Amino acid sequence: MEKIGIVQTKHRKTGRLLSKRTGGERAVFTVVFVLFLLYSVSLILPFLWMIMNSFKAHTEFVMDQAAGKTLGFPDVWRLVNYINAFKQINYIGITFPVMLLNSCYYVFIGGGISVFFQAVTGYVISKYKFKAGPVIYAIAIFCMTLPIIGNMAAEMKVRAQLGLLDNLAAVIFTSMSSFGYNFLMMHAFFKTISWDYAEAVFIDGGGHFTVFFRIMLPMAMPLMTTLFILSAIGIWNDYQTPMLYFPSSPGVATGMQLAAFEMLRKAKTVYYAALVISCLPVLILFAAFADTIMKNYTIGGLKG
Amino acid sequence: MTTVQENSSSVSSQAFAKKCRRKALLKKHAFIWTMLAGPIVCWFIFYLYTNLNMIVMAFQTPKGAWTWQNFVSFWDNLSATDGSLRIAVWNTFLYFLLANAVILPIGTLIAYFLYKKVAGYKFFRVAIFLPSIIPGVVMVTVFKETISPVGPLGKTGWIPALGFLGQDSTATPTVLFYTFWTGFSSIMLLMSGTMARIPTEVMEAAKLDGCGPFREFRSLVIPLIFSTLTTQLIFGLTGLFSSSGPILLMTGGAHKTTTLSYWIFENVYGSTGATAADAYNIVSATGLVFTVILFPIILLVRFLVNKVDMVEY
User: Fold this and answer.
1) Whether A210 and A274 share a structural domain
2) Residue A224 belongs to what domain range?
3) Which of A84, A295, B21, B66 places its Cα 20 to 30 Å from the Cα of B260?
4) CB of A258 closer than 8 Å to CB of A276
5) What is the separation, in whole angstroms, between the first and last Cα of chain A?
6) Does A55 map to a domain?
7) Does B227 touch chain A (CB under 8 A)?
8) Which candidate from A117, A279, A294 shows the least CB-CB separation from B39?
9) How far is the C-alpha of B250 from the C-alpha of B235, rounded, in Å?
10) CB contact under 8 A, A293 and B189
11) What ipTM score was computed for the predicted complex, to two decimals?
12) Can you give the pTM of this predicted structure?
C-alpha cells in the first residue's frame, strides 16, 4: 500500500514536471491560447448565427437582412421552421423524413457491414497462416497507396451492367470490399491479441467460428465502435456517393445540397432549421463517443 | 504377436492422427475462405474489373471501337488557355500545396500544443474537430452565408458586390481559404492520438536536461511521430485526386474553381443521355493519364520515406 503511495507521489511529481513552464514558455502558451480561442470562436460563431436565424420567420429574416441586422435575436423564438423543415424540404418528391431514413440506411447497413468485414479480413489475415494471406495483405497495401484516378465512369458502367445503379441493395455488396485503411487498423489490433484464447476454445471442442464470434469480435468492439462512428459520420455527411450511384434515394447531405438552391431563395430560415436538424445525429454520436474516438485513432507507418 | 499388434495399432493411430490433422486443416480453410469470400469477390468486381474497364474505356469510343481520340481530346482541353482541365490541374496543384506545405505542418503544431495541454485544450480539441463532424453542406452554407454580400458581414463594406465566390479573381482563393479554415481537424486528431502514445519518460528526461518546447518539438516529437507524418503525406497525395472537396457545394465549378477530381465528378454526374457515354470515355482516358503520372511519384515518395530510419517505440 505504502509502495503504491510512493509510486503515485512520484507520478504526481513527474506529471507536474512536464506541466511546469518557464516564463518564456508561458508567454508562448498564452499566445497559442489566444490564437486557438480566436480560431475556435471563428468556427463556432457562424453556427450560432445560423441557429439563431433558424428561429426567425422568413419575412423577419429578409427584413433583418435588408437592414443589415441579421446578428440580432429573433423577435419571437419560433419553432415553426423546425416543423416546416419536415414538410417543405423536398427534392423530386423525396421529403426530408425520407432523406433522413435513407441516410440511416446508408449508415447502419453500409457502415455496419463494412466495419464487420474489416474486422473479418483483419482477423483472418493477421491470425491464420495460409499461402494467400501475405499476397492479399500486399495487394491491399498496394491498392491503398496507389489509387486509380478517374474510375468513377467505369464504376457507373459496371454498376449499370450488374443492375446495381440506383439500387439500394448495392450498398450491401460495395460495403463488403473491405481492404482499405480500416482493414490495416483491424489487422494491427488482432496482431496484439494472443492466440491462447483460441487454443482454449479448441480444447473445449469449439470451432473457428466460435473463436471469432464469441472471443475475438467482443474484444475488438472498442476499436470497431470507433471505426463505425467515424465511418458513420463520413457516410452521413457524404453527398457525392448517393448523388452518383443512388440518384432516387438521396440521403440528408445529398438532399439538402440538391434542395439548397430553391430553399435558400424561398424559405431560408426553414432551410437553416433543416441544416441544424441534419447536424444533430452526428453531433450527438460524436458527443457520446468523443473519448473513445480520440483515444483509439492513430496510425503507424506503411511498411512494405 | 504383441509387436505386430503394437505396430498395427501405431499405424492406425498415425492414420487417425493424419485424418484428424486433415480434418482440422479442412475446417481451418473452410473458415478462412467462408469469411473472405464476400470481400474477395467484391474486390474483384469493384476494384479489379472496374479498373480494367477504365483502361479499356480509355481506348474506346462509346460504341466500343478502338481509338486514340479520347487522349487527343484530353490534350486539346489541357493545352487550351482556358481549357477546364488546365484550370483543374492548376487548382489541384494549389490544393496539394495547401494541404502538405501549410495544413500538415500547422496541424501538427496544433496537435503538439493540445498534447502539451495548453489551457482549455479539451474544449479546443472538440472545437477544432467540428469541421469533421458537421456535414460539409452545413459548413459550406454557413461559410457562404457569412461572406455573402447580404450576410452578417455585408454592411462592413469588405465584401465585393458580386460576393467573393461570384468573380474569377477571388473565387479560388476563397475556396482555398475555406479549405484552410476547416482543414485541421483530421490532422489534429491523428497527430494528437499519435503524440499521446509517446512514452512520458522520454519527455521527462528531455525536460530535466533543460529542453525547451521548440527543441522538444523539433528534436523529439517530430522524429517520434515521423512514420505517421509520412503515412499522412502519402494518403494526402492519393486522397487529393479522389475527393472533390467543397467545390460542388461552393461554386459548382464556376469561376475557374474546378479541380481534377471535381472535373471528373462533374463529367460523370452531369452527363446524361447521349453525351454520357462519350464523357465516360474521356474521363477514363484523363484518369488513366494522371494515374500513370502519379504512380512513379508515389513509389518515389514511399522509397524515400522507407529510407529514413523510423523510431519504433
Assistant:
1) yes
2) 88-296
3) B66
4) no
5) 48
6) no
7) yes
8) A117
9) 24
10) yes
11) 0.86
12) 0.87
